[in-house]
Design brief:
By secondary structure, the protein is of the alpha/beta class. It contains six helices and eight strands; from the N terminus they run αββαββαβαββαβα. Strands 4-3-5-2-6-7-1-8 form an eight-stranded mixed β-sheet, with helices on both faces. The longest helix has 21 residues.
Length: 223
Amino acid sequence: MSAQETGFIGRFVGGMIRRSIRSKLRNLWWSPPKDTFKAPAIVYANHHGWLDGYVMFHAMAKLSLPSLAWVEEYDAFPLFRFVGALRYAKGDLEGRVKTIRQTMRKLSSEGKSLVLFPEGILHRPPTVLPFQKALHGIATKVPEAALVPVAIVYEQSIHERPEAWIEFGEPHAFVSLADCRERLEALLGTLRTKIQNGDEFQLLAAGTASVNERWDMRRIPKK
């Protein structure tokens, strides 16, 4: 159990997230932040994969940084609130404003951080879409919060299941949405190059080995 999980239900949801990563990925790799940062922080990432929220759950738990996340599909599974999710339903402007105000309060006074996918929608790689204005709003209202870009890349190639990698960028002050987007695009490029070059990463969460790794009849003792 991590500080991200609240009570029994939080442990249940956290366990579900961990099982999902184990079953769906070969491994989850990362490069821990070179420049340490503390709460409050606004950690913003690209949104290219269904597992993005689960991936960031692992990273923030490993960093011992309890975090919030805005979730459009919150109403489908409100138990996510026990691991930091806040309702951010599409079409509910009043509800979104309420969530933004709640987030500002928790960042400023409760030592929380925010995981944000500022493109606003899940979409296929490799492009990074223009960032929505919510990042500007929260960053300017909580100026003490460091902004931290995070690149997430998935690849299915040499294993039965895809692998995922996370790369943390340097913490920075808010300048503009365009500046944040450029930083994330550059970080994604760096991460993809590292993967292509075979650079070493640390294991953040073990997944499920490929069938040829789990079953090999050559290991059966011969009579």
